[in-house]
Specification:
The protein has 202 residues and is mostly helical. It has helices at residues 2-30, 48-58, 62-66, 72-105, 130-168, and strands at 177-186, 191-200. It has one domain. Helix 2 (48-58) packs antiparallel against helix 5 and helix 4 (72-105) runs antiparallel to helix 5.
């Protein structure tokens, strides 16, 4: 008997529930609900990393200026200038030793590494021998090549830095997200507990 009563109640109340549902749907359609996104969308220029690298390849430091990292420009030029200075200095020294060695091979004893006495006459034996001139040429040639490679490496690093910096400018670094060290004093045994906390503020 109770089951029949329950079935009858459900059978008679079901149409009323359907009507109530329809009325609620109409009310929702009448309202103009606007959902606003809480995260601000920023436009990303996908060509900016390649453009920054291109600018740095054309003129070192121009990619850093494009990224508005002006403090890096003197660092780039100081590094490139140092490499170029050592390349030029090693080239000049190499040419001095090479010219002296060629002069010795031609039979002259008037090069700058032969040396002279107080009267200006050449000494009987040179200050730097021919083997010393050969060793100096090898060392200076190696140093010149190393300084050239270092200068080219700095130039490539300049391009990579501009590209990576432009990529990192596209990421959202917000103040609401922080990773901080966490120090807590355990009051029971007077020891410190170390940890790392990740804070996210809403």
């Amino acid at each position: 008997m109770q089951n029949k009563l329950l079935y009858c109640l459900v059978f008679f109340l079901l149409p009323f529930l359907a009507v109530c549902q329809d009325e609620n749907d109409d009310q929702l359609e009448e309202r103009n609900v606007v959902i606003q996104d809480t995260i601000l969308a920023t436009s990303i220029d996908p060509l900016s990393p390649s453009r920054a690298a291109f600018y740095s390849a054309i003129l070192p430091g121009l990619g850093q200026a494009y990224n508005k990292k002006y403090w890096k420009i003197p660092v780039v030029y100081a590094a490139l200038g140092t490499g170029i200075y050592f390349y030029i200095d090693n080239t000049n020294e190499y040419n001095r030793y090479r010219d002296a060695f060629k002069s010795r091979l031609a039979g002259f004893d008037t090069d700058e590494f032969w040396g002279t006495d107080a009267n200006g006459d050449p000494l009987p034996s040179p200050i730097i021998s021919e083997d010393g001139l050969i060793r100096a040429q090898r060392t200076l040639r190696r140093n010149r090549e190393i300084s050239l490679l270092v200068t080219l490496g700095i130039y490539v690093l300049n391009i990579i830095d501009a590209n990576v910096d432009a990529h990192l400018l596209q990421y959202n670094v917000d103040e609401n997200l922080a990773v901080k060290p966490h120090f807590k004093l355990n009051e029971l045994d007077a020891t410190t507990n170390l940890g790392l906390t990740v804070d996210f503020k809403f």
